[in-house]
Amino acid sequence: MNNSYPNLNPWLDETKPYKAGLTFEQVSEIYKIPIKNILRLAGNESTIGISPNALKATQEASKNSNFYDEPKSEKLTEALKESFTAEGIDMTNLGFVCGNGMDSVIEHVLTLFAKDGDSIIDLYPTFIYYNFAAKRLNLEIIEVAREFTENNLELSYKVNISKVINSLKDNTRVVFLCSPNNPDGGITDLKEIEELAKVLQEKNIILFVDHAYIEFADRKIFDARSIIEKY
Questions:
Q1: CA within 20 to 30 Å of 230's CA: 22, 46, 58, 74, which one?
Q2: What is the pLDDT of residues 67-121, one digit of tens each?
Q3: Which residues 6+ apart lie within 8 Å of 98 measured at CB?
Q4: What predicted TM-score, i.e. pTM, was given to this entire model?
Q5: How many angstroms separate the Cα of 64 from the Cα of each of 20, 59, 60, 61, 70?
Q6: What DSSP letter does each residue of 128-145 carry, written as one string?
């Protein structure tokens, strides 16, 4: 980092800049490949395009985009509640927090439940924003390494629940568990999540289960929403 900016927060010196993937235009220009022949698989993007229904809804919504929307995302929340109920999840005593992507939800959770000097558990390698958001709030980051596993052709990093529990401190406020995990797709079994949830409930620690990619897994086996009311 350029030392001519002494007022920057010190933690930025230890942060590596995020390296984003190249755009279609950049790949085409560098490798001289027509854009129509390029298929990007490393950006967690849909390769089949936008749903016509979603495109139509976006166009309709854009007509009022010069005004503020509902302050608490009431319509979205109601739609989500109906969707969860249809899947058999009782939402009677549960609620929703709507954010601008997962990043903002992570920041809100840390702002609400952690303060300077507290710690979080980061199960690396995993989504980098847990670590980044914690650094911004001057939180201690307890890194618990996932264990590399190889089963036939399946390669993933498995969470050792006992290791997580043994790494907890008195100042730990949040444990971040991404399942399926970003970037390797490793899934933590629901029984293991429940084992961890029980311990964290007793210690009054937040368990943040990140299901950003749960649609790519068997929800009946891995979806932690089925135990959320219990814990």
A1: 74
A2: 988 888 899 899 988 988 888 877 777 788 888 889 999 999 999 999 999 999 9
A3: 72, 73, 76, 77
A4: 0.85
A5: 32, 10, 8, 6, 12
A6: THHHHHHHHTT-EEEE-P
Tokens of 80: 């989500």
The closest alpha carbon to 87, from 179, 211, 180, belongs to: 211
Cβ pair 95, 74 in contact under 8 A: no
Look at residues 76, 113, 75, 77 and name the one whose alpha carbon lies nearest to residue 200. Answer: 113
Burial of 206 from C-beta contacts in 10 A (0-12 / 13-18 / 19+): middle
Amino acid at 65: S
Instruction: Dig out the tokens for 102 from the structure.
Output: 């997962």
Token output for 193: 């999540």
Q: What are phi and psi of 24, to 5 degrees?
A: -60, -40
